[in-house]
């Protein structure tokens, strides 16, 4: 049994010693003290089924033994030197990661987070294109640093500082967007912005193919293909933010952008790449990477031996355990059951996503699509009491995000749906 600090004291110290901008889930926040694969345990030993994976970060499973072993072994041998010396772990990891990329995406930069990855991608786009203007989607989340905050397009995360040379085009959201699933109309708006709202040239375009923080929104089919063409004609590079959607989670493909049949010029990743280790990466073409050589580009912890050994273990585990096809299999079962549940409960306005990257949007009125904010909060607490942890997303906080560790089983999926059914029935 756990003998450490209890929730009340942790919370008290958090309030005293950590910044006031932190937020937590649940009226009485959980004190999670242990994790094993798809399960989390609180201080009292209560087990929770984790359907959110620490914001889509735990890919293989909490404390997956292969990843833990790789980290422990490397930690005992050598923790850190930086890239001023040679080390095999970073090149092995880079080679393995590059082998997962399509096209000529072969040059890897390692960083420590998704924010850092997107900062670097934006820098490259600007240097390579010689332009400044970036285009991002409304409802996007790309980071919280002074630069990436400009890319992020949810007002709740944007501090009022200069947001840089960044414009946000309409979100091709099939459920809430004014053009529904009509990708061509949304793409025309991008061209419209470039023609009328810019010099005619842009630095680049960035998008998550499956918006995470924005509430598991899958972009209208065909959108990226049309927009990549438009952006490239305007001199810009196309960046795919795979921080949440990569590594086979969407089931049908290894990378989210592949679901739209495109090859980006730069891909950014983090979260699932490390199964919990602070790790991020940018992968691009040799041609784009070459613009960085005009100065020194250095990152003290980027690609350190411990994270590289852990990251390589993650890639191997996902392959060996065939997690991509598993996500397809369990995901289609889960989405099928959620759609059936939608027929039973009017409050479920939309069920969307692919693989284990799903969203359930709750509304009080299906026609008006009025966000069921208060009801979502009640259900969220109830699910937790029933032992199920899901995520919350969307600007109105009315979307349940179901993005569990990729070892999640069909039984786990059934448990989530049954718990949701039970909770909604009791509203
Ligand atoms: N991009 C996406 C799509 C994300 O979801 C996040 C984090 N929620 C980030 C970038 C930023 O990653 P980090 O918090 O590791 O900086």
UniProtKB/TrEMBL annotation:
CDD domains linked to this entry: OAT_like
**Which residues span the membrane?**
none
**GO MF terms on file?**
alanine-glyoxylate transaminase activity; pyridoxal phosphate binding
Give the main location.
mitochondrion
**Its GO CC terms?**
mitochondrion
This protein's cofactor list reads: pyridoxal 5'-phosphate
Q: What is its EC number?
A: 2.6.1.44
Subcellular localization: Mitochondrion
Oligomeric state and partners?
Homotetramer.
Protein's recorded name: alanine--glyoxylate transaminase
